[in-house]
């Protein structure tokens, strides 16, 4: 999860109508999601929403396929990600507040 060239790279695999990872914690800034749809013949997308009016998604696309979504997540807080047709596919990511060093985002979902 180390930022590469100022961009945080996150990879999420969609398989059997589920995401392989459902919780991320990142620093504010540019994020590049790679969504790897491994469900052959099943249409998924990758949708991210949260603070600051973030609401962005990839097109629905039949697997197997790989999509990328680049966002700038500058506002600390909790963001959600999901696949629109499948309620079983959801997760969240927390953008930490760099102005609060040592403050860990406490657990709970
Ligand atoms: Cu889906």
Gist?
The chain is 0% helix and 57% strand.
Helix-strand blueprint:
Layout (H helix, E strand, L loop, with lengths): L6 E9 L2 E2 L3 E4 L2 E9 L5 E2 L2 E4 L3 E4 L3 E2 L2 E9 L3 E7 L2 E10 L14
The structure holds copper (II) ion.
Features:
mainly beta, binds copper (II) ion, Immunoglobulin-like, five-stranded mixed sheet, 11 strands, 109 residues
Characterise the protein shown here.
- It is a single chain.
- By secondary structure, the chain is mostly beta strands.
- The chain has one domain (7-95): Cupredoxins -  blue copper proteins (Immunoglobulin-like, Sandwich), CATH 2.60.40.
- Helices cover 0% and strands 57% of the residues.
- It has no helices and 11 strands.
- The chain has strands at 7-15, 18-19, 23-26, 29-37, 43-44, 47-50, 54-57, 61-62, 65-73, 77-83, 86-95.
- The strands form 3 sheets. The protein has a 5-stranded mixed sheet with strand order 3-11-10-6-7, with no helix packed on it.
- It is elongated, with a radius of gyration of 14 Å.
- The two termini are 20 Å apart.
- Copper (II) ion binds at residues 44, 83, 85-86, 89.
């Amino acid at each position: 999860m180390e930022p590469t060239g100022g961009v945080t790279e996150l990879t999420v695999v969609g398989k059997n109508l589920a995401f392989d990872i459902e919780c991320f914690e990142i620093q504010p800034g540019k994020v590049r999601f790679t969504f790897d749809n491994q469900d052959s013949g099943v249409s998924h997308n990758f949708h991210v929403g949260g603070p600051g009016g973030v609401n962005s998604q990839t097109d629905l696309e039949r697997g197997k396929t790989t999509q990328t979504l680049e966002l700038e997540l500058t506002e600390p807080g909790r963001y959600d990600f999901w696949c629109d047709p499948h309620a079983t596919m959801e997760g969240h990511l927390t953008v930490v507040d760099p102005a609060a060093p040592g403050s860990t985002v406490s657990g709970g979902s």
